[in-house]
Amino acid sequence: MASAGVDLYAQLVAQGLGDLDLAVVRQAIANLARL
Q1: How far is CA 31 from CA 10, 13, 23, in A?
Q2: Torsions phi, psi of 25, nearest 5?
Q3: Beta-carbon neighbour count of residue 11 at 10 Å?
Q4: Residue 12 has what pLDDT?
Q5: pLDDT tens across 1-35, in order?
Q6: Which residues lie below 8 Å from residue 9, measured CB to CB, with a gap of 6+?
């Protein structure tokens, strides 16, 4: 699970969202659930 978290965070950083709080992580996970 930690590996998946690291991968997700790397994707968020690549999108320029690395400075945002955990709300962006929650939203990213919710977006993945919709796929």
Answers
A1: 16, 16, 12
A2: -65, -45
A3: 13
A4: 83
A5: 889 888 888 888 888 888 888 888 888 888 888 87
A6: 18, 25
Interatomic CA distance for residues 2 and 8, integer angstroms: 10
Place of tokens 């997700």: 8
Place of tokens 């930690």: 2
Cα–Cα distance measured from residue 13 to residue 33, given in angstroms and rounded to the nearest whole number: 20
Q: Are 25 and 12 in contact (CB under 8 A)?
A: yes
**pLDDT reported for residue 22:** 83
Asked if residues 28 and 11 have their Cβ atoms less than 8 Å apart, the reply is: yes
